[in-house]
Amino acid sequence: MAGRAKARLTRPCKQLDFLESQGIPSEKSEHMSALSWGILGRTPDQMAAVIDYLKGRGIKDVATTLFQNPKLLEYDVAADGKELVKGAARIQVDVTDAEGGAHNVLVNFYRVGTTFKTAPISPWKPLDA
Fold first, then answer.
1. Which of 9, 70, 71, 76 is the most buried (most CB within 10 A)?
2. What pLDDT is stored for residue 101 in this prediction?
3. Can you tell me the distance from the alpha carbon of 85 to that of 120, in angstroms, rounded to the nearest whole number?
């Protein structure tokens, strides 16, 4: 295969345009929406709230975090601002320091009522839970 055809949506797509305005190239934003098609049902204001949440949690490279975890954009920010919510599902994003001044982004997916660290298969506890 010599090359890949690059096709852009022929009609305007405010969600993808918004992601591009946040520094995510069009190829990546289209890839994200293919993996997580719920993004296309979101408004730019809803996505901006998630981006503000991520920045508030200390994430420096929001574009990379969203590319690696596009499902984040399908969630809403909780009233207390500590987690993202979608029905009974929750996501909490934490940042820890790593060697050399870098940081690790921890994305914890869980449901309401989850018990943490009680069995070998239970999820890790988010830092603020």
1. 70
2. 74
3. 25
Q: What is the pLDDT of residue 104?
A: 86
DSSP category for residue 88: T
CA distance between the termini of the chain:
49
Instruction: Please say if the pLDDT value at position 1 is more than 50.
Output: no
pTM over 0.85? The answer is no
In whole angstroms, what is the distance from residue 9 CA to residue 27 CA? 11
């790593």: which residue's tokens? 98
- pLDDT given for residue 123 in this prediction: 63
Q: How far apart are CA 67 and CA 87, in angstroms?
A: 23
Q: Structure tokens of 37?
A: 């098609």
DSSP secondary structure code for residue 124 in this structure: P
Q: At what angle do helices 26-35 and 14-21 cross, to 10 degrees?
A: 130
d(C-alpha 121, C-alpha 30), whole Å: 34
What residues are paired with 77 via a beta bridge?
Answer: 84
Element (H, E) at 111: strand 103-111
Higher pLDDT, 11 or 115: 115
